[in-house]
Please model this.
Amino acid sequence: MLEFTWLASYDASKVVTPNAKVIKFGDNYEQRQASGINRKPRKFSLSFTRSTVEIDAIETFLSARGAVEAFKYTHPGQPAGVFVCREWTRTDISFAVHGLSADFEEVFE
Model:
C-alpha cells in the first residue's frame, strides 16, 4: 500500500464522527448504541501551498488512487491510518505557486 508523505499546512483540521445507532421515541427521548468495532473514523481537511511541480505530484498521487484505492497517511501527532481522498480542489495562487485542499477519510479494510 502506498503512503502519502507530503506535509500539510498548519491550517489542517480533524473531524471525528463516532458511528452510533439512534432510536428516537416520543417526547424527544432517544436511545443510542455503539455501531461496529471501528467506531471513530477520522477525517482530515488538509491544504497545501507549494510550487506547481509539487502540487502536480500531489494531484497525480490522488488521481491515481481515484477515490477507490486507499493509502497510508500519518497526520503529525496522530496514529497512522488508512485513508481515501474522495475530493480535492486545486487553485492558482501566483506564478509557479498553486494550492490544493483535500479531505482524507479514514477507512477500515
